[in-house]
Amino acid sequence: MKIAIASDHAAFELKEKIVQHLKELGHEPMDFGVHDNTSVDYPDYGAKVGKVVSEGEFERGILLCGTGIGMSITANKFPGVRATLVYDNYTARMSRLHNDSNVLVIGGRTTGISTAFDILETWLTTQYEGGRHALRLKKISDLDNNRRGE
User: Fold this and answer.
1) Domain map (residue ranges) of the chain
2) Is 35 one of the catalytic residues?
3) Is the model's pLDDT at 34 over the cut of 60?
C-alpha cells in the first residue's frame, strides 16, 4: 500500500524507524518530511499528508509529532480525512474497525518504538467493520460537506 507519512522535529527519529518498518512490511511509504530534527511548525507537515489523503492520492497516511495532538487537529481539517490519535493496540484496532481511520497519528514523545510498531501493524491489518458505523461516518462526511457550503 502507498502510505503518505510526515512528522515534525519532535518525532523525526520515530518517523525514520516507521518508514523503514513500513518498507520491511512491503508497503510504499512516501516521506513528506521532516528530514532532520531542526525545529519546524507541525501544521505545515500535517497539511501535506492531510491534503494528499483528502484528494485520494494516497489511501492512508501516518503523522507524528511530540504528542500527536497537533497533527490530529491539522489533518482533520481536510474533507474525508479521519485522523485518529492512537496510543495502544486497542485504540488502533477500534480506529479502523469503527471509524475507518485513514490517517494514523502517533505521539513521538509519548510512544516507544515497540509500541509504535505494534500500533502500526494493528492499524494496517484491521479492516473497517461497516454496518452500523457507516451511518455515523456518513454523518461526519456530511459535516465536511456543510463546512464547505455544499
Assistant:
1) 2-147
2) no
3) yes
